[in-house]
Design a protein that fits this description.
two-stranded antiparallel sheet, 32% helix, 7% strand
Length: 82
């Protein structure tokens, strides 16, 4: 079951010292299901920090959906913000 969730799989592989592609999850503070768990200011600072560490380009994908739907290769901040 854990293999169906990329971010969770990445965490398990990291714990067992297995090389893998890092996955980070950022939740939307405006979404009704996550609003009470996140600061109103959102997570833009954390996103900026991670992209700053990784450098461009970065690959972004919404949590919902399967396969390659809505995956983007962001090459600048404007594309990350979109």
């Amino acid at each position: 079951e854990i293999c169906r969730e990329k971010a969770a799989t990445s965490l398990v592989l990291d714990q067992h010292k297995v090389d893998n592609i890092n996955h980070s999850v950022f939740l939307n503070p405006a979404h009704e299901m996550t609003a009470e768990y996140l600061p109103r200011s959102g997570c833009w600072a954390e996103i900026q920090k991670l992209v700053g560490e990784l450098g461009f380009p970065v690959v972004l994908k919404p949590l919902k959906g399967t396969g390659g739907l809505d995956v983007i290769k962001a090459t600048c901040w404007r594309e990350v913000e979109a």
